[in-house]
Amino acid sequence: MLKNKGFFISFEGGDGTGKSTQAKIFYKWILENFDKKAVLTFEPGDSDFGREIRELVMHRKSPTQKDQITAKTQALLFASDRSYHIDNIILPALEQGKTVITDRYFDSSVAYQGDVGGLDDKSIYNLNMFASDGLIPDITFLIDRDINKALPQAKKTTGKKYDRFEDKNLAYHKQIRQKYLELANKKGSFAKRWCVIDGSGTIAEVNKKIIEAFLLKIKEIKSNNIV
Ligand code: TYD
Questions:
Q1: Residue 55 confidence (pLDDT)
Q2: Predicted local confidence at residue 154, as pLDDT
Q3: Which residues line ligand 1 (CB under 6 A)?
């Protein structure tokens, strides 16, 4: 938490893990129990500018269209969406002392566009430090779930448009899951922000685990005198 600023919380996880549902329910809890002015937002695309980038990066006209958008192009588009998102939504709210919850943030870029996406984690991390001016969440919830169960849910959410991310195979989704676990378990100064949540179980059960982890984390942060 930046001095005199609101709490910054991100939700991360693979496609179809229930992450967005959990972010919404947790937001409701935060409004009722922690900060009634809290803001819920998401990436990619939670702004007019972001929506256009989202269209560019997420969809192509048909599954057979030759894909010209490389991992590097995607990474740059996601990073510019993020930079705009921070300047126009995240930072103004944090500066007013509001809690901000974002459904995906730069760890998504490291997980998807880094080593797994054919680039490398370090370059993507550095690109995102530039895009975000080093704005790191206070808490990052990783919703971790067995991908065999997660995939059908991801498929169901696919609308009419062809979604280049949800089209990937099971092996790819397993790689994303492993990458997230690797990021969350990394040693280092920012490692403490991660809370790995077992995403199996009912929506209410997972929500309970998130709230418990949040209360512990808050206690930990307060006792370290960071807040
Ligand atoms: P979205 O429809 O928002 O789904 P989800 O509910 O899984 O968040 O799709 C976001 C997709 O974009 C998802 O497959 C992950 C991908 N993505 C990246 O590859 N890099 C990024 O930086 C972000 C924010 C998302």
A1: 87
A2: 54
A3: 15, 20, 43-44, 78, 104, 108-109, 112-113, 165
pLDDT along the chain (227 residues), means of 10: 79 95 98 98 91 82 66 93 96 97 98 95 97 96 83 53 65 94 82 92 97 94 68
Per the domain annotation, does 3 fall within a domain?
no
Atom of ligand 1 nearest to the CA of 166: 14
Which residue range(s) make up the domain with 94? 8-223
Domain presence at residue 31 = yes
Residue owning tokens 């992450």: 19
Pocket test for ligand 1, best of 141, 153, 165 (most atoms within 8 A of CB): 165
Mutate which of 55, 101, 106, 108 for ligand 1 pocket (most atoms within 8 A of beta carbon):
108
pTM assigned to the model: 0.90
Contact status, residue 139 vs residue 105, Cβ threshold 8 Å:
no
Please give the distance, rounded to the nearest whole angstrom, from the Cα atom of residue 124 to the centre of ligand 1.
15
Give me the pLDDT at residue 225, please: 59
d(CA 178, CA 142): 12
Q: Report pLDDT for 160.
A: 46
Name the residue with tokens 């329910």.
25
Q: Which atom of ligand 1 is nearest to the CA of 78?
A: 22
Q: Say if 190 falls within a structural domain.
A: yes
The pLDDT assigned to 46 comes to 86
81 inside domain: yes
Dihedral of CA atoms 148, 150, 156, 162 in degrees, nearest 10, equals -90
**How many structural domains are present in the chain?**
1
